[in-house]
Structures are given as C-alpha cells and as structure tokens.
Amino acid sequence: MNKEKAHELLRLLERDASLSNQTLADMLSLSKDEVVEMKTVLKDANILSGIQAMVNWDATDNEYASAMIEITVNLHKGVSYQQVADVISQYDEVEALYLMSGAYDYLVLTKRLPMHRISGFVNKLATLDHVQGTATHIVMQRYKDHGTQFKTKTDGRNRLVISQ
After folding, report:
1. Distance (Å, rounded) from C-alpha 86 to C-alpha 47?
2. How many CB atoms sit inside 10 A of residue 121's CB?
3. 67-73 and 106-110: which strand pairing?
4. Edge to edge, what strands does the sheet with 94-99 contain?
5. Radius of gyration of the chain from its Cα atoms, rounded to whole angstroms
6. What digits encode the pLDDT tens for the residues 133-148?
7. DSSP H or E stretch at residue 145
8. Other CB atoms within 10 Å distance of the CB of residue 130
9. CA–CA dist 131, 108 (Å, integer)
10. Sorting pLDDT into bands at 50, 70 and 90, what band is 157?
11. Distances, alpha carbon 149 to alpha carbons 54, 143, 145, in Å
12. Hey, what's the signal peptide range on this chain (predicted)?
C-alpha cells in the first residue's frame, strides 16, 4: 500500500467520512477496489478506527452538557498509567481519554449527559484507587470541534444569543 496515498485517504476521510468509495477513488486517482482495499488494511491495522458524524448539539433543543475533567493520580508501586487509563476508559460516560503532561495526568471528555450524570461520574472517578484529585469544566459552547466550525445563533448585531 502506498503510504502517501493512505495518508491522503485518511485526511479526506477525516474531513468528510461520507465520501463514497468511488468519489475517494476519483480524488486519489485510484480505482474503487484499491480504495476499498486500503480502507480494509487501515481498519485491520486499527488506524481507521471508526467513522462518526459531527453533530452540532448546541443547535438542537437538547439540554445535555459535556465536561472536561482533569484527573491527577498518585501511582503506587507496580501500577502504570496504562492500567489506570484502562479502568477509566471502561466507563460509559467517557467519550475521550488523554494522558497529559503538565499540571494533571489525564483529561477526560464526557459524552453529552444531564448534569446529575456528570456529577455522579465525577464522584465515581474521585473514589478510584490512585486518583488524587479532579477538576471539572463544563463545556458552555463549542465553536470548532475536530476541524469542523459550528455556526452560532446571533441576535443580528453579531452577539451570541444566550437565552430565547
């Protein structure tokens, strides 16, 4: 498999996963069968891990919120960051989990949930072995996510509408 073409395919899919195999083939100057084979190889190698739509939930009447939770840990002998991450990532509330450098060890992005579920999840995290502390930040408004810029409602004077 041509690495350069594979990287180009990944960039195209990252930008718009709804492109058909034929459209991708045309854009990459490949056959449709070559694109299908490349996607299969990339999936088997766990490089192409999933395809999701970007939903601007802020434009809906859904009142759920998402949170970013900073977690600091105190690892004891014989426990690794990977082991702690394996435990945290098993929770349904976790949308994304990152090992960080700096003031905290992990950053968790929750799925969109009611506030009481976020609160309950933070309480679960705080009671885990090795968790030293948490700091929770509620996402108020998303302007850009995964390269997709979201349009916001304004009042005609380019001011964000806070209530309707």
Report:
1. 19
2. 22
3. antiparallel
4. 94-99, 106-110, 67-73, 131-138
5. 20
6. 999 999 888 888 877 7
7. strand 144-145
8. 16
9. 13
10. low
11. 10, 6, 7
12. none
